[in-house]
Amino acid sequence: MSLKQVTEQVIDLSKQVGAFIREERNNFDPDKIEYKGLNDMVSYVDKTAEEKIVAGLEKILPEAGFITEEKTRNKIADRYNWIIDPLDGTTNFIHGLPVFSVSIALKEYDELVAGVVYEINQDECFYAWKGAPAYLNGKEIKVSNCPTISNSLIATGFPYYDFEKQPEYIELFTYLMKNCHGLRRLGSAAVDLAYTACGRFDAYYEYNLNAWDAAAGVVIVRQAGGDVVNFKGGNEVLDIRQLLATNRKMTGEMLEVIGRYFV
Questions:
Q1: How far apart are CA 129 and CA 117, in angstroms?
Q2: How far apart are CA 117 and CA 128, in angstroms?
Q3: What would you report as the CA-atom Rg of the chain, rounded to the nearest whole angstrom?
Q4: pTM
Q5: CA–CA separation, 247 vs 250, rounded Å?
Q6: Which residue in 5, 114, 172, 219 is deepest, having the highest Cβ count within 10 Å?
Q7: What are the CA-CA distances from residue 6 to residues 2, 57, 59, 160, 197 (Å)?
Q8: What is the pLDDT of residue 31?
Q9: Secondary structure of 85-109 in the HEC alphabet?
Q10: What is the chain written as a DSSP string?
């Protein structure tokens, strides 16, 4: 089966699970929230969605393993592994803020080769696979042409635990706030990356992300013509837990500014 065929099946699965999440949001009971850690919430919706995704993916690539947020399946395979966030933006979901998504990526050995981000509320499915363009609902997308920070709209995320680098983060945030068109924090890293891929954001940066938060979006941004690097400019972002996504034109300037605060 080709990567295109695999991705098409993952798109269908993402939309099916997205429909389940959307319906559950209409009847959600906040008393069913669980806490995994400080400000790290989960609900039966996350867990059930992940179970549905895993069951569907096992039919697409039976030999593949899984790296999942809710740990419903612990299986690492030699060649293929799925990286899954069944509900990226759980805090938004719990509070009824309509920015949350399904995020599914496929990794072959050490390379990310396919990614799907389904933003449930807008019914927007972003996807890409190795060797092809990136798409939004069937139409090819590309990153923006914005050349400088001064003309840009930038996305970020706020840490909700491990506040060791908070002072540096605030200094960086303050600089960008004064020097770009605006900063946005949507609460879903997968959506931030997808929006960077289609040019709504010109850049996005965050630290302390987990692999399942970003993997699918990384594929989509890169196939849309953008850069995804760590804060030192290297290509490894998932294990290092630092991520800068840009339209490529702004990469150098963003790295220079980030380097003033994160060394």
A1: 12
A2: 9
A3: 17
A4: 0.94
A5: 6
A6: 219
A7: 6, 9, 11, 34, 21
A8: 65
A9: EEEECHHHHHHCCCCCEEEEEEEEC
A10: --HHHHHHHHHHHHHHHHHHHHHHHHT--GGG-EEEETTEEE-HHHHHHHHHHHHHHHHH-TT-EEEESS-S--B--SSEEEEEEEEETHHHHHHT-S--EEEEEEEETTEEEEEEEEETTTTEEEEEETTS-EEETTEEE------SGGG-EEEE---SS--TTHHHHHHHHHHHHHHSSEEE--S-HHHHHHHHHTTS-SEEEEES--HHHHHHHHHHHHHTT-EEE-TTS-S--TTTTEEEEE-STTHHHHHHHHHTT--
104: β partners: 84, 116
User: What CA–CA distance (Å, rounded) separates 6 from 38?
Assistant: 36
Whole-number mean pLDDT of the chain? 92
Q: Is the pLDDT of residue 61 over 50?
A: yes
